[in-house]
Amino acid sequence: MRAFVEGVGLLGPGLQGWEAARRVLTGEEPFRSASTIIAASELLPPAERRRTPVPVKLALAVAQEAFQNAGRDAAGTATVFTSSSGEGETLHQMCETLASAEREVSPTRFHNSVHNAAAGYWSIATRSREASTSLCAYDASFSAGLIESMTQVVSSRKPVALIAYDQPYPEPLHSARPLLASFGAAFILTPEATGRTSASFELEFLTGEEEPARMSDSALEDLRLGIPAARALALLEALARKAQGDVVLEFLTETRLRVTVSPC
Amino acid sequence: MLPLVISRFSVVNSLGAGSESMLRALREKRSGLAPCGFETARIDTYLGTVPGLDDFRVRSDLQDYDCRNNRLAQLCLEQDGFAQGIAEARDRYGAGRIGLYLGTSTSGLHTTELAYRRRDPETGALPADYRYAETQNAYSLGEFVRRYLGLTGPGFVVSSACSSSAKVLGSAARMISAGICDAAVVGGVDSLCLMTLYGFHSLGLTSPGPCRPYDVDRDGISIGEGGGFALIERATRVEPGAILLLGVGESSDAYHMSTPHPQGLGARMAMQQALHSAGLEPPDIDYFFLHGTATESNDASEDKAVLEVFGPRTPCSSTKGATGHLLGAAGITEAIVSILAIEHGLMPGSANTRSVDPALKSNYLLENRQANVTRALTNSFGFGGSNCSLVLGAAG
Question: Model pTM?
Answer without folding.
Answer: 0.98
